[in-house]
Structure formats: structure tokens, C-alpha cells
């Protein structure tokens, strides 16, 4: 195809390139160098709270203690006695330690709330926050079941096995 036919077939808004030799201008602009940014302040990572071992121990203890307390409270409400001592007193000991763990987690949470204005950190996978919530629910259940037990029987069972329950 010759140039005349191409000129006729092209749309009117397009412009043809110039056929003059060396008709282009080469311009080089130097890129602007931006100054380097400096970090002035950085938020503290929540995973580096310094209580890593305590958090993991509270998670492990709370995940075991809360179901044991639920079992203990159900047994107390239905039979009027706590959990049986078990082999070598292991179940009774687990029950007693579970009550102490829940009270410890609730105390740690209240101390942290008073000191920082917020509760315990969430911990890995949110487990510490879950254990904290379950511990508060367990404490509420303890107060309700112990209160009902006291109103019905006039007392709550002691920490050691008695003749009334496991004699």
C-alpha cells in the first residue's frame, strides 16, 4: 500500500509521524531523590508483653480448671457433695487446685484491669482472653451454686472428704 492510500484510509483524528530525519528530541530528566524515611515511634508488639510463661501457664491451667469446676459444681448441686477423692486423692486434689487456678486468673485479671484500664491480653489465638472469660463465668457459677447449697443445706461441704459424703 502506498502512502496516499494509507492517508485516505486512516481516521481524520490520527496524525502521521513525521518523515523528516532526526525530527525527534531526546530529553533526559534526572529522577528526584527522596530523602529516606526514619521511624520515630513504633507500637509495642502485644506478643512481647514479658509474661509469656505466665500467660501460657494460665492458659493451660484455665483450660483444665474450668471444665473441672463445671463438673464439681454439677456434682455438688446433684449430690450435695463435691467430687470423689479418686485414686490417691488425685481427683479431689485436681478439684481444689482448679478452684485456686480460677481465683488466681480472676485476681490477675482484676489487678491488670485496675492497673492498666483493660483486662488481660488476648494471648496466642485469643486463648488467654477466652480463659479469662470462662474463669469469670466459673466464679459466677461458684457463687450461685454455693449460695443455693447454703440455702438448702445450711452449709457447703468442706475441702476434705467427710463421713457425710465419702465415709
Automatic annotation (TrEMBL):
Keywords, alphabetical: Membrane, Transmembrane, Transmembrane helix
Segments traversing the membrane: 57-76, 96-113, 125-151
Protein name per its UniProtKB record: F-box family protein
Top-level taxon: Eukaryota
Source organism per UniProt: Hibiscus syriacus
Species lineage: Eukaryota, Viridiplantae, Streptophyta, Embryophyta, Tracheophyta
